[in-house]
Amino acid sequence: MKKYIYVAVVIAVILVGYYGVEAIFSPSFEIPTAAVSRGEFVISQNASGTIDAKRAYTLSAPRVRGLQITWLAPEGSTVAEGEPVIRFDATQQMADVADNNSELKIKKSALERAQKEYTIQEKQLILDLEKARRNYLEKKHDAPRIAEEAKLEMELAELNFNAKLEQLKADVEKAEVEVQRTQDKLNLAQKELDQMTIMAPIPGLVVYLEIWKGSGMSKVQEGDSPWPGMGLVKLPDLSEMIVKTSVSEVDANKVDSGQEVIVIADAFPEKEYDGMVANKGTLARKKDHNSEINVFDVEVTILNHDEDLKPGMSASSMIIVDRVPDVVSVPMEAVFEKEGKPVVFLRNKKKVEVEVGRRNDSRVIVKTGLEGDEEICLLDPTLDEQGLPGDKATEPELNKGRGGPQGSQGGGGRGGRRRGK
Asked: 219 with 327, same domain?
């Protein structure tokens, strides 16, 4: 008996050890599940793009020679409308204004003298002419010789009157031209002086531009001598922000002005901004130089104001194409094709045939077969070898070998989550 007992104990230990080790080192697979949801189903078109200001001004160097930057508003700072952004060395312009001011005073004094001389001479000439006329009237009945002399004196007075007045008038006009010419030079010098300080035409963010400096391109800085007309600083208005994005020509017919958009900046994935399609391009273009894909440009207006949003940030735009109220939907990877029919598996691995409808990039509507309170498997429990727990199919079996309009619906899973809260 002892012999049999020892054999039984050894066999039991071996069996316990074998199954114990197998239990420890053999992986156990749990099929991931997901809840079936009922509610609004959002169909959207996803598009990636770049945040930019709706309006922005580029501040350029004035059309003046010999410029040198002496001061710049700090890059990244925000300036109000009318505040200085760029200052240039204004030494020459200040000297020109002072010189022209002095010259203008001299020219104005000369004009005043010419005008006074005209007034004095005009009165004197009128007096001389009147005297000559009276003298002629008194002597025209005298002796013919005396009457002839009086007549000649009158005619000479008339000629002298006209000739001298014309000369005096020409002197005044010449002085007026000199004054205007000097005034124009002063105005030009003052204009150039005013251009030595560039003010912000709108409130915005100071962004330095790159300029050519002989050896290469680099950002503008104090001490640079830019060419006239060269762009120096970009001033985007942060009060109104947009997203510049594009959609493929296949999906372009789904997008139109006025559609609701959910914008998420890559830098702030936890924030969602309300947006609206402002406009869609009328002509298609190549996505890039080496691509055969045609796209339409789309501009999305961001309706929320947030100072954290800056031009150049990447963002995703979820353009809401349609909203289907009160429907049952499931993750696309939870739908499988068995014997040519779509099915899902409940948590207890029971197979349920379903009829599917429209879909977005992550979920699909189930018209019949589910009520909305079930829990379903995300992996096919009937397969002999499962993937690791939590793995999801990269291509749902529902999509394999199937096409049609249902498969062309744009994505918006995140929008469905947001609106279903």
From this structure: no
Lowest average pLDDT, out of 19-28, 198-207, 352-361, 381-390, goes to 19-28
Give me the DSSP letters along 158-211. HHHHHHHHHHHHHHHHHHHHHHHHHHHHHHHHHHHHHHTEEEPSS-EE-EEPEE
Alpha carbon of residue 410 to chain centroid: 26
Residue pair 187/72 in contact (Cβ under 8 Å)? The answer is: no
The amino acid that residue 377 corresponds to is C
Do 223 and 363 share a structural domain?
no
C-alpha to C-alpha distance for 351 and 211, rounded to whole angstroms: 67
Domain co-membership, 245 together with 372: yes
**DSSP H or E run through 418:** helix 413-419
- The pLDDT tens digits for 44-86 are 999 999 999 999 999 999 999 999 999 999 999 999 999 999 9
- What span, in angstroms and rounded, lies between the C-alpha atoms of 362 and 369? 19
Q: What residue type is assigned to position 15 of the chain? A: L
Question: Is the residue at 3 inside a domain?
Answer: no
Tell me how crowded residue 331 is: count the other CB atoms within 10 A of its CB.
20
| Residues in CB range of 287: below 8 A, 6 or more apart | 246, 293, 294, 295
Do residues 228 and 249 both lie within one domain? Answer: no
**Mean pLDDT, range 3-7, rounded to an integer:** 67
| pTM score of the predicted model | 0.62
Q: Judge if 334 and 401 occupy the same domain.
A: yes
